[in-house]
Amino acid sequence: MLKKANGQIVFPPDSSEQAPKVLIENGRVIDPVNGIDGIKRVALSGGKIHAISDEIPEGFVAERTIDASGKWVVPGLMDIHVHLREPGREDRETIQTGTNAACAGGFTSVACMPNTSPVLDEESKIRYVVQRGESCPCRIYPIGSITKGLLGEELSPFGEMVRAGARGFSDDGKSVYNSKLMRNALNYVKSFNVPIISHCEDADLVAGAHMNESAVSTRLGLRGMPSVSEEIIVARDTMLAEYTGARVHIAHVSTAGSVRIVRDAKKRGVKVTCETCPHYFIFTDEALGNYDTHKKMNPPLRSEADRQAIIEGLADGTIDVIATDHAPHVSEDKKDVEFEAAAFGVIGLETSIGCVLTHLVHKDILSPTDMVQKMAVAPNRILETSGGSLSKGADADVTIVDPKAEWTVDPDAFYSKAENTAFAGHRLQGFAACTILGGKIVFERK
Ligand code: DOR
Questions:
Q1: Theoretical Cys-Cys bridge with 89: which of 46, 85, 293, 327, CB 3.0 to 4.6 Å?
Q2: What is the pLDDT of residues 349-391, one digit of tens each?
């Protein structure tokens, strides 16, 4: 089915084509790395940031001028946690459709998880993703698996994968069950300046469960995952990070206890960072209503106390990053099945910025600078990638955000192949108006 598009992807990248000279005028430039927050001109040239100034730089003749009145001009956003499904499940998403969705959502880079088929557990597979990404409108940083085949038995060859372009390692979708193997992974990763990204869930405590363990799971008659199943592994992996001196990044934090463990570990100087996703600060398990499969994900939606703790963790800086865990599924696995048979996961690339603006920034929980910090600066720092600032000479990856535009989420209008959003029909305020990658305009909203 052909979807109606919200905007226009204007750039099937052609590396031979020169990036034009672009001048962005009248926008509020927010660049925390350089301490900038004010109305400025941004000049792009040769695919790089040429200048940020009050006046047009001397001798600069723009080939394209963008009027960003009423909008924010920020470093290109990065989503540190997405599933692009290629290789293997191209019926759910492809690298092309996933990165189209990313650039329509304002992202200029994404880190993609290795639970593909085959698993990204060796150099050739990382290389495949990197090469496929070269013709896409968004930078891709693959995450390699911690263990071969995600089987939790033998470490994958980290060195060759880092050389091929991997920027971190994760068995996302499950935890590494064996603590000795996790300790070895943390020791091993220290040589490569990339993090271990930990999906935290105790496999025995969640076996056969489909949602949060709570009064709601009792009412629905579904087996629940207790919050402690996440927290046990968050505690273990931050302790192992402390013990080994390695860096761990905790994926999709969903509980109050996880926030507390990370906060305490940070105070002790442990090299731990973490992320959450919009669904965890917007919904509770009550949103499952009458078995809504579009609210089924792993970790699951939790209680109101957990949701409040996530918001507090975002506000006080314990939670470093907002990611999406974009997890595309076909409708046979999601819409047309009963709850217990439905797959875990929701998509998020095209709704993330709207959710963050509507539910955090416009409610004064996060400032616009905090938002840029959590959606551009911190993800790049964690993966040690080069984006996240508008510094002179940096790659001209820029997102122009319209913070006020009101819109209704319509899955038919997504660039993603998938429609399994938790936000269908939601009214949101704010979206990406224009996305610029390496100085080339890749997306403009109609
Ligand atoms: O809900 C989820 N879906 N959580 C994960 O950790 C994996 C993801 C997927 O790959 O579908």
A1: 85
A2: 999 999 999 999 999 999 999 999 999 999 999 999 999 999 9
Q: Is the CB of 345 under 6 A from ligand 1?
A: yes
For residue range 74-96, list pLDDT tens digits in order: 999 999 999 999 999 999 999 99
List of residues 6+ apart from 235 with CB closer than 8 A: 261
- Listing DSSP states for 209-232 in one string gives --EESSHHHHHHT--EE-HHHHHH
Element spanning 132, H or E: helix 123-133
Q: Is 225 in the pocket of ligand 1 (CB under 6 A)?
A: no
Q: Which residues contact 139 (CB under 8 A, 6 or more apart)?
A: 108, 109, 110, 133, 385, 387, 397, 437
Strand bridging mode 36-45 / 22-31: antiparallel
Give pLDDT tens digits for 129-171.
999 999 999 999 999 999 999 999 999 999 999 999 999 999 9
Three-class DSSP category at 374: helix
199 ligand 1 Cβ < 6 A: yes
Global confidence as pTM? 0.97
Residue 417: φ, ψ to 5°: -70, -25
Give per-residue pLDDT as tens, 280-299.
999 999 999 999 999 999 99
Q: Atom 7 (ligand 1): residue with closest C-alpha?
A: 173
Ligand 1 atom index nearest CA of 251: 6
**Mean pLDDT calculated for residue range 49-64:** 97
Residue whose CA lies nearest to ligand 1 atom number 2 = 345
Query: What count of other Cβ atoms lies within 10 Å of the Cβ of residue 132?
Result: 18
Closest ligand 1 atom to Cα of 113: 10
Closest atom of ligand 1 to CA, residue 199: 6
Q: Is the shortest distance between the CB of 327 and ligand 1 below 6 Å?
A: yes
